[in-house]
User: What shape does this take?
Amino acid sequence: MSRFLNVLAVSAVVLSVASPVLAGPLGLGRAATPDEIAAWDIDVRPDGMGLPEGEGSVLDGEEIFAEKCAVCHGDFGEAVDRWPVLAGGQGTLEDMRPVKTIGSYWPYLSTVFDYVHRAMPFGEAQSLEADETYAIVAYLLYVNDLVDEDFVLSRANFTDQKLPNEENFFLDDRGADGGELESFTAPEICMQNCKADVKITARAAIIDVTPEDGEARKAREAKLATEEAGEQPEASEAETAPEPEVAQETALDPELVKAGEKVFKKCKACHQVGEGAKNRTGPELNGVIGRDMASIDGFKYSATLRTMAEDGTIWDEGNMAEFLRKPRDFVKKTKMSFVGLKKDEDIQAVTEYLKSFPE
Amino acid sequence: MTTELKGAKPSRRAFLKGAAAAGGTLAGAGVAAARAAGDPLITQVQPWTSELGDGVDAAPYGSPSQYEAHVKRRTVDWLTADPISSINFTPLHELDGIITPNGLCFERHHGGAAQIAPGDHRLMIHGLVDQPLVFTMEDLMRFPRENQVFFLECAANTGMEWRGSQLNGCQFTHGMIHNVMYTGVKLRHLLDEAGVKPSGKWLLAEGADASAMTRSIPMEKALDDCLVAWKMNGEALRPEQGYPVRLVVPGWEGNMWIKWLRRLEVGDQPWQQREETSKYTDLLENGKARRFTWEMDAKSVITNPSPQAPITHGSGPTVLTGVAWSGRGTIPQVDVTLDGGVNWHKARISGPSLDKAMHRFYFEFEWDGKPLLLQSRAHDSTGYVQPTKEALRKFRGSNSIYHNNGIQTWAVNSHGEAENVEIS
Assistant: This one.
């Protein structure tokens, strides 16, 4: 017994030696210098804390936006493909498909400034000067009909700009009286004979948007349907057989096409290819290899490209490769803001991929 | 027969003896096979029994069996504009127990997964503190350490199901969650080191990635149970989980768990960053939006059977399993129903029951081959019971995107195949 107590006493001593280490500063780390803090402390709050000196006009903003932002967000913030819409949407917040933009949804303008400055342009974050950021934010206010075209945004007038939806935000009230937490905290839970009958009211299979399982499931369901109807399985197989691939005029390297499909992801924000492809920020690219330069009706090509096309130049693998490697060198003042593909194999692959859409 | 010998060579005598024995076996096998009745996988010697396997260094880090190659994170292409600012999903239907393997923890980045050398990483604390500080990774590892298991759920998990059943597979409906053991230092120790001023009520946490992800966190939570962690499940964080260091905000939405954590600013009010205004706010039916909805409500899902994991064995004894969790505590009870909620049964929870962590439940039953409507319902330690989707929509409408913790239904047909459905 006494030995046991001794052991306890020893443990207590060990603990008391160990615990003071946890209390109070350990003297770890070093002092941050003012310059270091300034370098990282770029956040901006609604009360204006953190705003840098500077200013920018709607007109300057329009130019910068066209150059740096329109590639994803469209010239007027209308967005390209699934990139975020930045303008419009006012009055849609109660709709089935609300459009949440800076003008319709965001509560504070400071958030716009902060986010553009810290994370935009996508792939070139923290490259914008304070004046450029003010100008872009001014332009975004303009495309949301919140200021006139001669407006200049500056640190001095920033906090005067209120966004229209600020008042419609409220703090988490799940825990309030009669709120969700109270409603869903039931003292008694039914375990037996809780309802009379049960019906299926919605099915995911009908929407059929699940990746990779769709084909397998269709085949399975077709098989099931025929079995239940007492038919021969051959019929369903014919029904679900994949359509034969259209023969290519020239043999393509399937591996290269596949690799090109991956590379093309970089182009997808602006260009469509394949069935039903439409002009977006960039022209559709069906049959681009072998077609006349600047020849898609209804697409506004750069002046340089139109001039280059005047003598009937067609896109071939050679000039396409040059263009893809350094777009701005090949077509001065091209509207394509893409920096270019560095690797030859990427250029080859994406060309092969484009060739797989001959028309 | 070629045999590669490593280490000490056997004696010639032993070699001859071995060869003779091998010859005898081969001759005998033919006769035995002709006579054998039964599963050839049993009656015949299989290559993996006869031939040597891989040596110890064949996979110095190690990877799952080649037969588990299908067990992986998957994305849904149409969800986002670009794979860099996107999400993929944990294959919940392929896992068991409560711990998610590191390579299967869902990924969500806003500017891609940054690759940062630990020696180059710095963590700064500044703002309303007595002494602004900079820590290296080495500094952080000299603080007292904690080991804690927590789930991390994206607030948008199950967000695609607000308007109705959409995706067939619990990987896609519920896979924006993982549950691992974190090793790190209490955030409180780091804040104490800098000395938070009495006016310091909020914390801005910022990542070092190309989105410079930021969230405002109330000081009360920061001082309560948050960790700054560098290990998960014993090994270094994976780059896609914030290597070399991330914030752990137990029970609260995943977006707040800043990865590649480089800066903590102490302030007197929240910053209203993009991720707490334009995103991660719950737009209700009346056009008004609820904000600062940080805690994740109790939730559960049956992982097997499920659309990606049908019953393949026909009628007979069947194991139903799933996971349950709550951002407000533990899970003392999970109920399951086979008939769409007419009758409920208490499931069996197996494994540790830890605060703000995943719980594993099982329900063993005899399947008679008839169609089933499966649901699970989690109770948490506050008394909250997971609501039906319909009950939740009464409060939230269907434009909410985030915090959908409604009860999930799988319809199992007579072939054992499961589908994501909603029921009356």
